[in-house]
Write a structure and sequence with these properties.
Number of domains: 2
Distance between the termini: 101 Å
Structural class: alpha+beta
Largest sheet: 4 strands, antiparallel
Strand order of the largest sheet: 8-9-10-11
Shape: extended
Helix content: 25-40%
Number of helices: 8
């Protein structure tokens, strides 16, 4: 049997417990945990994607990879992804990246210092012709996440780095886009998207695929007559085949339409800028369209 004053006392007691708990939680949450903070690996379901460059003949190709462990430093993440691809044996890329042991990474405002063991910088398949490409496979991978920065190597137990395969390893390495080749499929895919936008009269979308530098000289009003001329030549037509070659500044793609087309063969020029590929206004195909602009 509950005392006649039991309910009020019970309510007061419960209120007191709630107030004490709220005060305790507020006190615990009011300050951050004491330093030092955990700046190491962050295990869990983190899957950042990184573009990794590898040597293919006389150029660099790229592939994207996910890594499961997120670190604080994007550079450390990129190196981890690079090492993962370097040791893959199932995709015919083994031996097309450097296998190096990075001891430490120091990131400055303009330069990234990699302290490394020198063993991986001397391999039987390195030559004076391909060594620069191997170095750039790592440098370009790192500068994907650290744009504008340069990379230098600090060899372990060495006061001054050696000259290897005619390259002074004391130098600062900058990103080099000139050795990167987009696959023919990537280049043609961008051109096909451009042509499909023209075919569907999505002229705004097509215009955005023109090289940004060219867009400074050709505004949308200048571009529109070319788009109209394309539709006059290729009403509901799409290419049936293509051939691609490398040029000094980018790529040259010859497009083949059905023989019955008003313009069965056209030549387009494209240029890669980072991960993007753009169409150049100086393409021979645009000269063909110029004759039709007034129609």
């Amino acid at each position: 049997m509950i005392h006649k004053h039991g309910y009020p006392l019970l309510v007061i007691f419960l209120c007191a417990v709630i107030v004490i708990n709220m005060f305790f939680l507020f006190y615990q949450a009011s300050d951050p945990p004491p330093a030092p903070y955990d700046m190491g690996p962050r295990p869990g379901n983190f899957f950042p994607s990184f573009r990794i460059y590898y040597v293919e003949g006389e150029e660099l190709h790229s592939v994207k990879r996910l890594i499961q462990t997120m670190r604080v430093s994007p550079v450390l993440n990129a190196i981890s992804a690079y090492n993962m691809v370097a040791q893959e044996t199932m995709y015919d890329r083994y031996g097309k990246l450097m296998i190096i042991d990075v001891i430490d990474v120091v990131e400055g405002e303009e330069t990234i210092f990699l302290k490394v063991k020198p063993d991986g910088f001397k391999e039987n398949h390195y030559t004076t012709e391909n060594y620069y490409l191997y170095i750039m496979s790592l440098v370009n991978t790192i500068t994907e996440v650290a744009p504008g920065k340069r990379v230098t190597f600090l060899f372990e137990d060495t006061v001054e780095n050696p000259v290897l395969y005619s390259i002074d390893m004391n130098r600062l390495f900058s990103r080099d886009e000139s050795v990167v080749l987009h696959s023919s499929a990537e280049v043609y895919e961008e051109l096909e998207l451009f042509l499909r936008a023209l075919d569907r009269q999505n002229t705004n979308i097509a215009y955005q695929k023109i090289l940004p530098e060219d867009r400074r000289y050709y505004n949308y009003s200048d571009f529109y007559p070319y788009a109209k001329a394309y539709n006059n030549l290729h009403l509901n037509e799409m290419p049936v085949d293509y051939r691609m070659s490398r040029t000094e500044e980018g790529y040259c793609v010859t497009i083949y339409y059905p023989d019955s087309s008003a313009s069965p063969v056209e030549v387009w020029e494209l240029q890669g800028v980072g991960e993007s590929i753009y169409i150049l206004m100086r393409s021979e195909a645009f000269e063909q369209f110029a004759e039709k602009k007034g129609d």
